[in-house]
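Input chain follows. Return structure tokens only.
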Amino acid sequence: VQLVESGGGLVQAGGSLRLSCAASGLTFRFYAMGWFRQAPGKEREFVAAISRRGDSTYYADSVKGRFTISRDNAKNTVYLQMNSLKPEDTAVYYCAQYRTGGLGLAVKDYDYWGQGTQVTVSS
């Protein structure tokens, strides 16, 4: 399984970025997917998750109303649209594949991870 994130970068506060995660080596439509982030000196934290068919989504309170997770099963890709970015959103963002069956928010329940993409929000 390979997950490759892209779309990170430097943006001013209030700006937007769209992250993409291209998956290979798995039957993508069989798995829920999630986005996590890790800031320097902090633990990796949940950001958003989406069910296999994309009909259920979950968000951390800190990003609710600003971030949108989506997926395109025909393209084996999951996205994270990030609007109204704040300096506290600065982190390395990772996509991850949930273990077989269901959907969860815990880091330990995700089997495969991408290498991460840096998002930096300047004030």
